[in-house]
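Quick one:
INPUT:
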C-alpha cells in the first residue's frame, strides 16, 4: 500500500522516542544480566547439600541442573534452563517452585509448568546420585528365543 498514513511513524515497531532511550537501555542491561547465571557456579556444590523439601541449582560441567529433594530424601533433577527463552530458573523456597527471572515462568518442584509464558515442562535429566535398581543374582537367566539357537 503506497498511501501515506499520518499515524505510521507513531505506531512503527522501530520507533524509539528520545525520552524512552534510558528505559530501553536499562531493560536491555537487565535482560543480559538475567542470562549471566549461565557462567556462575551452582548454588550448592553437591546434591547432599540440599535439605529435604528444598531445591537448588547445581552446575554439572557446562550444564545447570535444577535439583529438588523431596521429604523422603529422593532427589528429582531437571534442566535448570527455562524452555521459554533459555533463562536459568531459581528455587523459590516460600512457594516451593522453580521461577524464571526472565519472563516469570513458574514450575512446580518436579519441573511441571505452572505459569507461562513457558508452555513446556523443565526437561528431565539423570543425576549421578540416582540409585540404580539392583538385579538379584539368584534370578534365572532370560530364556533365549528359538531363532537365536540356529
Amino acid at each position: 500500500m503506497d498511501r501515506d498514513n499520518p499515524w505510521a511513524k507513531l505506531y512503527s515497531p522501530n520507533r524509539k522516542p528520545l525520552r524512552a532511550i534510558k528505559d530501553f537501555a536499562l531493560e536491555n542491561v537487565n535482560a543480559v544480566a538475567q542470562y549471566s547465571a549461565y557462567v556462575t557456579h551452582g548454588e550448592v556444590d553437591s546434591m547432599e547439600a540440599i535439605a529435604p523439601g528444598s531445591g537448588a541449582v547445581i552446575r554439572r560441567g557446562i550444564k545447570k541442573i535444577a535439583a529438588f529433594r523431596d521429604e523422603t530424601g529422593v532427589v528429582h533433577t531437571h534442566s535448570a534452563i527455562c524452555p521459554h527463552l533459555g533463562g536459568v530458573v531459581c528455587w523459590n523456597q516460600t512457594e516451593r517452585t522453580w521461577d524464571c527471572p526472565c519472563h516469570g515462568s513458574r514450575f512446580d518442584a518436579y519441573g511441571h509448568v505452572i505459569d507461562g509464558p513457558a508452555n513446556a515442562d523443565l526437561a528431565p535429566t539423570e543425576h549421578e546420585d540416582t540409585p540404580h535398581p539392583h538385579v538379584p543374582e539368584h534370578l534365572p537367566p532370560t530364556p533365549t528365543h528359538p531363532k537365536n539357537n540356529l
